[in-house]
Amino acid sequence: MRLMRVYQIGVLLCALLGPVVAWSQVFSITPSITVGERYDDNIFQSDADKEDDFITVITPAIVLRYAPSLETEIDFDYEPSFELFADQTDANYISHDLSLGLKAALSRRLQVTLSDRFTLTEEPNDRERDILLEDGTRGRSDAEREQTIRNYATSTLRFQLASRSSIGLLFENLIEDVEDPDEVDEVRYTVGTEFGYLTHIQRQNRVLLAFRTDIFNFEANPEPDADPDAQIPEEDDFLVHTASAGYEHHLSSTLTTTLRLGYSFTSGLDSEDGDQNSGIVGSIDLEKLLRTGRASIGYERSLTSGGGVGGQAVADRAVAQIATNLSPKITAVLGANVTVLDFQTQADDDQDRMFFTIRPRLTYQVLRALRLSASYDFATNIFDESIRPDRTDHRAFFESRLIFRKGWSVALSYEYRTRSFEDEAETSREFDEFTRNRVFLSVTYGPTFRF
Known about the structure:
Elements: H1 2-22, E1 27-40, E2 53-69, E3 72-85, E4 93-105, E5 110-121, E6 148-160, E7 165-177, E8 184-200, E9 205-220, E10 238-250, E11 255-268, E12 278-290, E13 293-305, E14 312-325, E15 330-343, E16 353-367, E17 370-383, E18 390-403, E19 408-422, H2 426-432, E20 434-445, E21 449-450
Antiparallel strand pairs: 1-2, 1-20, 1-21, 2-3, 3-4, 4-5, 5-6, 6-7, 7-8, 8-9, 9-10, 10-11, 11-12, 12-13, 13-14, 14-15, 15-16, 16-17, 17-18, 18-19, 19-20
């Protein structure tokens, strides 16, 4: 009897103190400093003007994590990087990479999520985009050593109206600021709302009704030697309005499909007589929770912008992603994107293209103190018009990292990148094709403090 009472008291204490123990360390901070030396055999990514150099890289960083409850988590990462060239001192620069994430239950009925990623850099290899957003229209600025600024922010606010119904508000912002006269700067805003109604509470199946407006603003970039007083051609800004209905169906506890069908139409932002386009849009997504990861595949048809080209385009995009632990020591990630852009203005007809990219990545924790990683990125643009050469990019990356105690690690990496054109014109090959090799040896110190 006494043992039974002790057992009951122990169970009661675990029930009362378990959440406190689980969340006793809700705040962590990881300051770090990385110092390394890189050899680059083609710093300007141009075979016509090939220059090699040694670069000293100094990268301080800070990572903050705050999780006061199971429903609330805040992440903050900031990483400036100082790159000092031994010979090409005019190429010295400072890049900035910042990310912020928030998910919180403000009350029992109100939830908010927020994310933001900001990148300012002159290094082409730092301009990585989410595979869901890549469309191949920034090929020129992605290959040149010019300052680019990119910021992508999303936020959602969801309110539970009743046991079966909820309403959500969406806001997105995308900023692409480049210095290339062949591309346009773009600022995009998205405002939308979505109403959901549960048709099956246990399975969480729901009907979805949504409306959103996308606002696209463009600004052309002048030629480097252009007259400062010369007028820069203006791009037509426009809005896309989309109304849709959909259904989210949980086929099982690990398999979910979402189907949406709607209608989109455009309107001019600065004038009433802007180009008007409309059509049926929609999407279908399938998501599977794996035992040690997640897999998804989806297709979407939308009215959108031409990205770095500007203008209006119909985009058909199919994306597949999978991330899983193949074993306790091996992690695999694979993403693929096929996008077909059909520009709706005659002036941009030669920009119609099919874009394809695939990105496998593998990480192998050989020993507790040794980690190997490898990734590959293949991307190609196939244009409908023969006047534009098809473009293909390859990028391979390998890294070995030796991890010591108390936050110390040493890494050695190798990166190979190449661009080629399927074109008989020598001009494209001479000025745009390149191969590039980089070797980087670095030392990092980054202790983690938990409170």
